[in-house]
Amino acid sequence: MGKRSGSGAFGACPTLGLGLLVARCGAQADPKTVTGKLGDAAVIANNPPAMAVAQWKASDDKPFHGSVIAFSSPDGTGVFQVNFRNLPTDTGGEYEYHIHDQPVPSDGNCNGTLTHLDPYERGQEIPCDKDKPGTCQVGDLSGKHGKAAAPDFEFKRYRELYASLAPGIGAFFGNRSVVIHFPNSTRFTCADFTEQGFILDEMGIDGPRFESWGPGMWGSSGRPGSSWGGPPGGWPGGGNGRGGGRGGGGPGGPGGGGWGSPAEGGGWGGPGSESQPPGGRPWYRSLRMTRARW
Questions:
Q1: 228 vs 67, which has greater pLDDT?
Q2: Comparing 171 with 290, which gets the higher pLDDT?
Q3: Which domains are delineated in the chain?
């Protein structure tokens, strides 16, 4: 009598193709976790002092505007700040947004940006598990950090450990684009990342300071408010010349751009202001992103 093959017998296991990892017979794969063909994404902790910005401006026929700002923190990891305003509200759901592999073509057709940035060849058939972000596509920002709700997705800030501001590796995104998708996954709009000046204070405060961007980056409550700032604050010199956070602005001196006093929820005023950090330490170091093939 021949041997019977039950559900746990070797003969009952399916044959797997070459190059696949063979799990123990009968083991079930985790449907929420996918590892790329080249493994999980590596944590990026050596970003240079750099900043890249993708920006949308409103027009008469399209009131949507916003930005995705990426910059390196003092510990070398990346920080993203996302601000979308006037997203259409009649679409029946939330919006996904991703870093795509290619820049926006000259004709503006978002389909030309191709697929998500995916240097580890994970694919997108199985949704990203935000609890295991290293297993997600590098470019799947909304999968790792949450979708955008209409009409306004205001100043969502998070640490992104897998996308890189260092040219020369597959996770680098400075020469790529961001695409925002309707809830049905069709492409709503897209914008290229562009290099921006980066200013990092010598005390290592985590965050960018913007020069010549007009009003400050911080709203009237001392938290991120809007890219055009909040009402003028009570301290001179801050807020890039015209009001940043609470106590962070005032009409101010030229070249302003700090936050308010620490007691008012921010840092100190920028160059040209009357408010400088204790000991007169220099507050700004202007740094530029390493240039590559942009």
A1: 67
A2: 171
A3: 51-195 (2.60.40.200), 203-281 (no CATH)
